[in-house]
Amino acid sequence: MKLNFKEDIILENDRVRLEPLTIEHVELLTPIAIDNPTLLKYSPPKFGTVDYLKEYIIRYVKMRTQHLIYAFAIYDKQKSTYAGSTSFMNISQVDERLEIGSTWIGKTFQRTGLNRHCKYLLMQYVFETLQFERLELRTDERNIQSQTAIKAIGGQYEGTLRGHLLMSDGFRRNTVCYSILKDEWKDIKSTIFKTVTE
Predict the structure, then answer these.
(1) Is the CATH number 3.40.630.30 carried by domain 11-197?
(2) What positions does the domain N-acetyltransferase occupy (predicted)?
(3) What are the residue boundaries of the structural domains of the chain, listed by start?
């Protein structure tokens, strides 16, 4: 099955709802950008102001129309508010693989289990609905917190791309690459995500 960029994909459980990112989310996500100006310090886009957030969302909405990225807004049902964003990117329909990336969640929502619920819904959709064979996750070599989180959900280290991305401050980052394969999902779902599915 192919990822349908024209479909409004909504993924949700009792804890979180992932809905297609739209320009209307600028106002809803502004508190996250203002309160967490360094949230994307390990990612290329500028962040921390309303204008930067608007540029970010406009770019990602446009890339959905170009079939390059499918971005979601994250709504925390427990706190009844929007918490951030995450995306399907580097999508290859032919090779049946994609990357979960451009994930950012406000600091007050971190370490609350919200991200784990998000990852579960995204991974379930990739492996059970799309029936894709491979899922990729990448992060800045300096972002130890992100690397720890990726390993905790079953990501297998594959290597480091040196001088891979140019940051907004002119720094060239090394990107650490992880993956999860479809035949690994059943075990990961029943062990790592056991508390999410109960």
Answers:
(1) yes
(2) 15-155
(3) 11-197
- The vertex-115 CA angle with 61 and 198, nearest 5°, equals 125
Q: Which residue has the tokens 């959900």?
A: 153
- Say yes or no to pLDDT of 11 above 80: yes
139 vs 174: CA distance, rounded Å: 8
- Measured in degrees and rounded to the nearest 5, phi and psi for residue 72 equal -120, 150
Per-residue pLDDT for 145 more than 80? yes
Strands (E), 61-171: 70-76, 81-92, 97-105, 134-140, 156-166
Tokens of 86: 């995450």
> Distances in Å between the alpha carbon of 184 and those of 21, 115, 119, 153, 192?
29, 20, 15, 11, 11
14 within 8 A of 76, measured Cβ to Cβ: no
Q: What is the DSSP letter of 67?
A: T
Q: What is 136-161 written as a DSSP string?
A: EEEEETT-HHHHHHHHHTTPEEEEEE
